[in-house]
Design brief:
Blueprint lengths: L4 H12 L4 H10 L1 H4 L2 H13 L4 H20 L1 H9 L3
Length: 87
């Protein structure tokens, strides 16, 4: 299934603006199909590359992107065990 850009952007925005990792996990669980889609992965990579001039923003974005990749590869529960263990 493919998703339109607006849907992907809305899901990524919700994930990135989560107050903490517990809220981020809840958002991933609610929007799993969109956030773990190939479209979201590509869009997230583009967002990271656009923020390279700001090292702090880029690091935050890369961390969030990596968590989504772990969720995709290992499952949400396993990914968040890694998060809780200290990225």
């Amino acid at each position: 299934m493919s998703y339109d850009d607006a849907e992907v952007i809305a899901a990524i925005r919700a994930y990135l603006t989560a107050a903490d990792w517990d809220e981020a996990r809840k958002i991933i669980e609610e929007r799993e199909r969109v956030l773990l889609s190939p479209e979201a992965d590509v869009m997230f990579a583009q967002i990271v590359s656009l923020n390279q001039p700001d090292p702090r923003a880029e690091e935050t974005l890369r961390t969030h992107h990596q968590v989504l990749r772990w969720c995709h590869e290992d499952g949400i529960e396993a990914a968040f065990r890694r998060v809780k263990g200290g990225l």
